[in-house]
Amino acid sequence: MYDKVTMKLNVDPLILSALKEDITSEDVSVNSVMRKPQAGEVDLICKEDGIICGLQVFERVFTLLDEETRTEFYAADGDEVKKGQLIGKVYGDIAVLLCGERTALNYLQRMSGIATYTHSVAMLLKGTETKLLDTRKTTPNNRIFEKYAVRIGGGNNHRYNLSDGVLLKDNHIGAAGSVSKAIKMAKEYAPFVRKIEVEVETLEMVKEAADAGADIIMLDNMSHDEMREAIEIIAGRAEVEVSGNVTKENIAKLTDLGVNYISSGALTHSAPIMDISLKNLHAV
Question: Which residues touch 40 (CB under 8 Å, ≥6 apart)?
Answer without folding.
Answer: 91, 92, 93, 94, 97, 281, 282, 283, 284
